[in-house]
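Case study 2.
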Amino acid sequence: MPDDSLLDIKDLVLHFRTSKGVVQAVDGVDLTMQRSEAMVILGESGCGKTSLAKALLRLLPRNVHRYTGQVRIDGTDIMRLGDEDFRRDVRWVKLSMVPQAAMNSLNPVLRVGDQVAEPMMTHYGIERADAMLQVHRMFEHFGVPLDFANRYAFELSGGMRQRVAIAMSLVTSPDLIILDEPTSALDVLTQANIMNVLKRTKAEMEASYILITHDIATSSELADRVAVMYAGQIVEVNDATHFYSAPLHPYSQKLMASVPRLRADQEPEFISGQPPSLLDPPTGCRFAERCPSRFAACDEEPPLFTENGGQVKCWLYSELAERQGR
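Prediction:
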């Protein structure tokens, strides 16, 4: 792993047992990100984005069938740690998370100030009075009125609850913050305010983010690099500037074509068909059945990552495609 890399994921797998079979939610994910970088993970609902976040934080349900791979943070493979060591040394120390619905993640019977202070008291043994001073500093930074520390989650608006959840994820200054749809279910103005807070925090605190979303327009506000996930796998990793102007993978191209354009006379497109079942995914390329550029190799073998300005997992960029005149 390069010296300036923060996170290095190799062949991460998370499968679940269900009554219908084994769901391959995360299936061989490889991903590397740098310190002080914002990595956006894009993809349709059900592609495995949230399962990937839970795999990194080891927030696993009881029906796990397979959980393997390598996850290095600052060179340390956290997959080798026992549960207690992981809880003490990784979760909320090196990794933290802002979940999709802040109301569901905040305890309704505890004041929000106490909830934000709890990680500092638990992991670093800070006295409550000192922890509350830090809570007030975080609330001030995120635009939350200080008296809100004495309120309960149900007394706050959706936007304020989300700010509190973000403050709680950053209060221990972790190396990496995972943001899982942090602006979902919020109005457009509140979404813009939350994204401005995240951008300011990234600049002032040199925070590193993984932003999980299916909102392409919102993601472009924060992204340094973009990873595209489809059917449990990463199919493209690219610099944000190049991705939003010229994506490589056919799925990425279709995603970008689905976004309405204000200054272009171009109708939004849609992706025909449905994603494959993760109970029994195809043996070849998982996007093949929906791909307009499909050819024989796509159904026979899964493509490997190749370098073409960015990393892309597609047979179109292979020597085989060139020989067949694709």
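The CA atoms of residues 47 and 108 lie 31 Å apart.
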